Automatic annotation (TrEMBL):
CDD domains: Anticodon_Ia_Val. InterPro entries: aa-tRNA-synth_I_CS (IPR001412), aa-tRNA-synth_Ia (IPR002300), Anticodon_Ia_Val (IPR033705), M/V/L/I-tRNA-synth_anticd-bd (IPR013155), Rossmann-like_a/b/a_fold (IPR014729), tRNAsynth_Ia_anticodon-bd (IPR009080), Val/Leu/Ile-tRNA-synth_edit (IPR009008), Valyl-tRNA_ligase (IPR002303). This is Valine--tRNA ligase. One of its GO terms (biological process) is valyl-tRNA aminoacylation.
Length: 694
């Protein structure tokens, strides 16, 4: 008779018995796994489901091996994404930031955070994740605030943090700076406009930035224009005539257009660098709302695309526009809202990361971290070699507010107000600034505060460095590289020993799943159809390190159905075996064993060795394939069929093999294995307390 009737009852049993809890005082060897914190506003998607399934399999395997396991969960405040979601929520009530003010807005934001967390936290447990929920961390909680402040102050005191105007990627919709690696590129068919600039003609896709041009540039090796370099010419513009000189710079591509480019230092990263090298002035022609400034004359106030369309007739009329061509190129868009990103000059906070990156490269080259797949070692090193200063400020209200205070010309770095008359910086820190500290802040790093009120369990000495981390490749620079840099800077140690990059699940055309494409597959649908265990097993078949999988609802349904049938097969085997169960699970002595018993036990030993090896090397897809084949073909089709002629003699072997199979299958199908394990006469409180058979 089954002790449990559904998966939720089993999960409640595990939680009630505190079977997920780590024990910092244990004499056991530790094994720690850090869960990538899902976004506060993010629902569980197929990538999360696979990631959580992999994490859980590794955690359950290590527990069975006798380790004290910490699988630590957390939630990211997701600055830009949360603020956008919350502002839309407020707009439905006729409210806004402007109407509420910062203090009231934040008060309502925290209430909204609590509401959406309650509705989402259950979904993060949906895959049977055996996380230590008693130690769950939120990136804005007090211990994280203290850690982030210490990170900022340490950099500031070391002269690594500075504030100043610099060209950044700006999202006009989210109204904040974003990082280069938060930018995606979409291929678009637009027009290439050939414009007459005095005696020269040049090509551009952005005539609307013409108002911000301060030079023309050619390649110094381009013989066509050698007589023009250094000379100044009068240029016809839509705001009248203007003088502009020609500069020579190696960055100019002689094969693009006519080989001449217009230089707009305020709105193009390459042009900005050209401007610095040649001491060119900067004219801001696009503002932070994505509209043209007063520098554009009568076109001021127009959105970029509106201005471009409106300018064309006048450019033609004045003889400036010579011709147009169709042109296919990549356009930078914000990864979150898909709005076109504008490079603009903005007053922001930056971290000098060159030296920090060099030290991280040295750590990686020592092979302190095992990367799966191994080629990510080289990928991360190459990115770190070319890294530029990190823009860490965001024009938001949701996040860690920059701990800098002003009073007149005085500046102080402090977590709290230094006193009367001090005003705090308006911006908040980039979400990745706090997430990069995640391996340390989650374990109570720097947990002392002046007030003495904060009491945080210090787990750092016990569980750091983390043994296992997992991530999708798309945040390898945003998160993984930064965790390595930051952990190494503050501890001179790697943040984790094994870094597993799982592949991306894509549709059959190789596209990412998205709501706009309507190609998504909800984990809840698969679980509703086939159950958690079958869904997990289906996902493990795609868990090859670094290899993307192409899936559809049909292919996942086929695999889900196959593994549900596998679960049914195991239940049928269990009913057959346990109906004559004994109170003695010991195997018969070698002298008394039947040749079939010897054969299946040998097969089982070989299976356990392979599954152990595959779990150690994180080739979970091979482990589940081996268990599937053994259960279905060796155990069921062959041994059990033969045992029917000598059932009582085979009973001990049947029970032994079934129990061992349940133990090695438990990391992958935790609910089914617990359900069946409880039916043995001889068992522990939970299968989670069993010992791995090798």
């Amino acid at each position: 008779m089954n002790k449990f009737k559904k998966e939720s009852e089993i999960y409640e049993f595990w939680e009630k018995e505190k079977l997920f809890s780590a024990d910092p005082n244990s004499n056991k060897k530790k094994y720690s796994l850090l869960i990538p914190p899902p976004n506060l506003t993010g629902e569980l998607h197929l990538g999360h489901a696979m990631q959580h399934s992999i994490l859980d399999a590794v955690a359950r395997f290590r527990r069975l091996q006798g380790f004290d396991v910490l699988l630590l969960p957390g939630v990211d405040h997701a600055g830009i994404q949360f603020e956008s979601t919350f502002d839309k929520h407020l707009a439905k009530q006729g409210l806004s930031k402007q109407k509420l003010g910062r203090e009231k807005w934040l008060e309502l934001a925290w209430k909204f955070k609590d509401e959406i967390y309650k509705s989402l936290s259950g979904s993060w447990r949906m895959m049977g994740l055996s996380a230590d929920w008693s130690r769950e961390v939120f990136t804005l909680e007090e211990k994280c605030q203290r850690a982030v402040f210490e990170e900022f102050k340490t950099y500031y005191d070391a002269g690594l943090i500075y504030k100043g105007p610099y060209i950044v990627q700006w999202c006009p919709r989210d109204r904040t700076a974003i990082e280069d690696v938060e930018v995606e590129y979409e291929e678009r068919k637009e027009k290439l406009y050939y414009l007459k600039y005095g005696p020269l003609t040049l090509a551009t896709v952005r005539p609307e930035t013409k108002f911000g041009d301060t030079a023309m540039a050619v390649n110094p090796k381009d013989k066509r224009y050698k007589d023009y370099v250094g000379k100044e010419f009068e240029i016809e513009t839509l705001n009248g005539k203007k003088k502009m000189r020609v500069v020579a710079d190696d960055v100019v591509d002689p094969d693009f257009g006519t080989g001449v480019i217009k230089v707009t230092p305020g709105h193009d990263f390459i042009d900005y660098e050209i401007g610095k090298r040649h001491n060119l002035p900067i004219i801001n022609v696009i503002n932070k709302e994505g509209r043209l400034t007063d520098a554009a004359g009568k076109y001021a106030g127009m959105k970029v695309t509106e201005a471009r369309e409106a300018m064309i007739p006048e450019l033609k009329e004045k003889g400036i526009l010579v011709k147009e061509e169709d042109y296919v190129h990549n356009v930078a868009v914000c990864e979150r809202c898909k709005s076109v990103v504008e490079p603009i000059i903005s007053e922001e906070w930056f971290v000098k990361v060159e030296e920090i990156a060099k030290e991280a490269i040295q750590l990686i080259n020592k092979d302190a971290i095992k990367f799966l797949p191994g080629n990510y070692k080289k990928i991360l090193i190459e990115w770190l070699k070319g890294i530029h200063d990190w823009c860490i400020s965001r024009s938001l209200w949701w996040g860690h507010r920059i701990p800098v205070w002003y009073r007149g010309k005085e500046i102080k770095v402090s977590l709290k107000s230094p006193g009367v008359g001090w005003k705090q910086d308006e911006q908040v820190l980039d979400t990745w600034f706090s997430s990069g500290l995640w391996p340390l802040s989650t374990l109570g790093w720097l947990n002392k505060v002046e007030s003495g009120k904060l009491k945080v369990e210090n787990l750092l000495d016990r569980y750091f460095p983390w043994d296992f981390e997992i991530s999708a490749p798309e945040i390898k620079f945003l998160w993984i590289a930064r965790m390595i840099m930051i952990s190494n800077y503050f501890t001179k140690m790697e943040p984790f020993k094994t870094m597993f990059f799982h592949g991306m699940l894509r549709d059959l055309q190789g596209r990412k799943f998205s709501k706009s494409l309507g190609n998504g597959i909800e984990p809840g649908y698969l679980i509703g159809q086939w159950g958690v265990d079958a869904t997990r097993m289906a996902l493990y078949t795609y868990s090859i390190p670094g290899r993307d999988g192409r899936v559809s609802k049909q292919t996942l349904d086929e695999r889900g159905k196959n593994f549900r049938n596998f679960a049914t097969k195991i239940r049928n085997i269990a009913r057959f075996v346990i109906e004559l169960r004994t109170t003695d699970n010991r195997l018969p002595t070698t002298d008394n064993r039947h040749k079939d018993d010897i054969w299946i036990q040998d097969k089982l030993e070989r299976l356990v060795a392979r599954v152990t090896k595959n779990l150690e090397s994180l080739e979970l897809h091979l482990a589940v394939e081996d268990i599937y084949n053994f259960v279905w073909h060796d155990f069921a089709d062959k041994y059990i069929e033969k045992s029917k002629t000598s059932r009582e003699e085979a009973q001990a072997t049947l029970e032994y093999v079934l129990k061992q199979v349940m133990i090695i299958l438990h990391p992958f199908m935790p609910f089914l294995t617990e359900e069946i394990y409880q039916q043995f006469d001889v068992h522990r409180k939970s299968i989670m307390l069993e010992k791995w058979p090798l």
